[in-house]
UniProtKB/TrEMBL annotation:
Belongs to the NusB family. InterPro entries: NusB-like_sf, NusB_fam, NusB_RsmB_TIM44. The keyword Lipid biosynthesis does not apply. The gene is nusB. It comes from Knoellia subterranea KCTC 19937. This is Transcription antitermination protein NusB. The lineage of its organism: Bacteria, Bacillati, Actinomycetota, Actinomycetes, Micrococcales. Pfam families: NusB.
Length: 137
């Protein structure tokens, strides 16, 4: 597994854990950076991803809610929410990540971590965000 893929996986794990424990993901990130719970501490890319998601949390959630046809955020599996938040951050706000790479990584993680229907749903929703990105001001 490539280093950036591992970093994305760790970011999703952190976002998922924060939601399950009803914690702020930014606060959990600070805890993990100060006192790692794994042999390998969180790297800079993982921290940047989580920080970016947290910084754009409201807008990301609003856009996911607006463009996920027939699905509210609450109705989605929790792991899908984490993957979508990370993917939305990367396609909308991360200038150093090509959109196609962000979507491909999100779909691969959904294939590994979620339901059989999740990769297609995540691919479609993130692709839609890429389509509307020029109209977002």
């Amino acid at each position: 597994m490539a280093a950036r893929t591992k970093s994305r996986r760790r970011a999703i794990d952190l976002l998922f854990e924060a939601e399950q424990r009803q914690l702020n993901a930014g606060e959990l990130l600070k805890e993990r950076l100060a006192a790692p719970v794994t042999e390998a501490p969180l790297n800079e890319f993982t921290a940047d991803l989580v920080t970016g998601v947290v910084a754009n949390w409201t807008q990301i959630n609003d856009l996911l809610t607006t463009y996920s046809q027939g699905w509210t955020l609450d109705r989605m599996p929790a792991v899908d929410r984490a993957i979508l938040r990370l993917g939305a951050y990367e396609v909308l706000f991360a200038p150093d990540v090509p959109e196609v790479v962000a979507i491909s990584e999100a779909v691969a993680l959904a294939t590994e971590l979620s339901t059989d229907d999740s990769p297609k749903f995540i691919n479609g929703l993130l692709a839609r965000l890429v389509e509307v990105k020029p109209t977002l001001g």
